[in-house]
Amino acid sequence: MAFILVHADESMIDGILQIADQCGLAPWPRNDYLAEIGRRDSIFLVLQTGRNLAGFVVGRIVPGREAGHEAELYNIGISPDFRRLGGGKMLLESFLSECVNRGATSVWLEVRASNANAIKLYEKAGFIKQSLRKQYFSDPLEDALIMQKILA
Predict the structure, then answer these.
(1) Which is catalytic among the residues 36, 70, 98, 122?
(2) Which residues face 62 on adjacent strands?
(3) 122 is catalytic
(4) Which domains does the chain have, with CATH numbers?
(5) Which residues does the chain have with pLDDT short of 70?
(6) Has 110 been annotated as catalytic?
């Protein structure tokens, strides 16, 4: 299957919200996604196949002091119809590449402790578990693993 990556725009928000819901991601209001589109420090990429939205990733560059910037990966999701086809890996690698291009030296994320598939994807990409945040996620209440990747 041929995927293409594009920057998110306002016309994609309904599809992004649908994918986020299908993935059980922490709910973000429409306005939060719209705000990320207009932010200069945001990285908001969409994976498409044909006319279908297959997935998305959104995060942000956080200015650092002396050692460079950090980045935070806020949400990544793949539509159930397009899982196990390499799209998640493509989104994550593209996000990480954009982080490097913008001067980030590390990336941080929080992931549900029960989300074995996401944890496996992150570990394969070089993320390391740094700590545990008890009862971080709600609906349902769950611990978060804090993971970090140092960018070379």
Answers:
(1) 122
(2) 70
(3) yes
(4) 4-150 (3.40.630.30)
(5) 1, 65-67
(6) yes
